[in-house]
Specification:
By secondary structure, the chain is mainly alpha-helical. The chain has a domain of 71 residues. It has 6 helices and no strands. Helix 3 crosses helix 5 and helix 4 packs antiparallel against helix 5.
């Protein structure tokens, strides 16, 4: 099971293969470089990121039956045979509802984003 042979390679190569548990605010430059190889384990509680807001928000809103229903009615209004009034007018209610809900979600998620940014490790504040 265990080998009595001496490990091959340099000590630094051996360190990279082993698991090292160190605080993230260490002063050792070699350990700082090793820590940069790994992803941060910071916890994010925000629902959206800048890039994921539009797709995630639309995905959540299209799970509501009323939104899908009004989109269906707006699409039907573009067919000349079943057109009840101007097709562009039928888009106003659903666009307004989707926009107001998206703005509400932004205002709800922004304070959580601010708290996540304030919740940093001591070395990110410049404290040691």
């Amino acid at each position: 099971m265990y080998s009595l042979e001496r490990p091959t390679g340099t000590y630094k190569e051996h360190l990279k293969k082993r698991r090292i548990v160190v605080p993230s605010f260490t002063e050792d430059e070699e350990l700082k470089q090793l820590l940069k190889l790994y992803q941060s384990n910071r916890i994010r509680t925000t629902k959206y990121s800048f890039l994921s807001f539009l797709p995630k928000n639309l995905f959540e809103q299209l799970h509501r039956f009323a939104n899908v229903y009004f989109i269906f009615l707006a699409a039907l209004n573009f067919i000349p045979i079943v057109e009840a009034f101007q097709p562009e007018v039928s888009l106003i209610p659903i666009v307004l509802v989707l926009s107001v809900t998206a703005i509400k979600d932004i205002f709800e998620d922004h304070p959580v984003f601010i708290v996540d940014r304030l919740d940093k490790a001591p070395n990110e504040w410049g404290l040691t």
